[in-house]
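Here is one chain, start to finish.
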Amino acid sequence: MTNKRWIAVSLATLVFIVSFIIPSTAQLFMTQDEEETTSLFQEFMNEAGKVTVLEEGRADSRIALVEVDGVIVDQEVSPFATASYNHQKILMDLEAMKTDETVDALIIRVNSPGGGVYESAELTDKILEVKEARDIPVYTVMESMAASGGYYISAPSEKIFAQAETITGSIGVIMQGFNVSELMDKLGIEDQTIKSGDLKDMGSTTRASNEEELAVMQELVNNMYERFVDTVESGRPLSREEIYKIADGRIYDGVQALENGLVDELGYFDDALLDLREEYSLEDAQLISFGASEFAWLSNPFFNNAKEFLPEQKSILPDMNDYGDTPEILYLYRGL
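Its structure:
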C-alpha cells in the first residue's frame, strides 16, 4: 500500500482504540460546559442500545420499525464488511420490544430473497412473540424483494404492503448440491469415504445419490415445505388448498401477489405507515427503531473518510451458491 493508505489505516485504528477507552477517561477532559457539549466519541459509543426516533410524536405510544435487508442468515458481523443483515441484533431488538410498554405497533420493512430455514423460522417466531406479548398489530412493507424466507417472515402480519415491482412468493424449499463423480473418474481421483452407515454421506458431491438417499432428502424438504405452508395458512386469509396452488416455488410481482391474496395492498412504506396509524389510532405515535448498530461509531465523518483509503472489503454474507461438501436446505430464491 502507499504511504497515504498506511497513514489512513493507522488513524482508523487509533479511532477504533480510543472509542473504547474514552468512556472511562472522559471525565478527565470534560470542560465546564459539559452540560451543553458531550464528547463526540461518547455519543458514538452511547448509540448502541438506544432508541432512535425516526418521526417525532408521543413518547408513550410508539411504532417500532424493524429492517430486514439482505439474506436471512446468522453471521458474524464486521465493521469493515458490507453485509447489511444482522440476525442477532434484530432478535435482540425484538426481545427488547416484548417488555417495552410504549410500543403499540410493529412495522417490518423487508428487502430479502430469503435465507436459512432455521433463521427464517427463528425470526418469524420472535416476531410472533412480540405480537402476542404486547398484543400489538404487525405490518410488513415489501420493497424490491420479499421472496421465500422473506415471505415466510412477512406472512403473520395483519397487513402486507408491496409495490407493483416487488418480487415476492417463491414459497418453497430448495436443496442443491453437485455431483462431480464423473469428473473425478476422468481425473483419476478416487473417493475413499469410510462411514458407519449407508446414509452417513448422504448428499456427498463425490458420488451420485441413490434412490433411498433421494427419498430421505425429499422427505426433509417436504416436511419443511409443509411448515412453510403452515405459516402462510396461519397468517393469510387463504385455505390450504388455495396456498398449494400458488406455492409451487414461482415468484410473483406485487400485482400478481395482490390478486393471489399474498399481499393486501399496493403501496410504499409511507402508505403502509399511514394506514397503520389510521387503522389503530396511532396518528400521534413516534416512529422509532431499536438500538443503533454496534458499529454506529464508525459513522464518524473522520472514519468514513479514512475508510476510503482502506483496501476493499468483501461482503461477509455467505455465498449461497457455494454448497460446500453437502447440500444446504434453504428458504431462498436464487434467481434474478
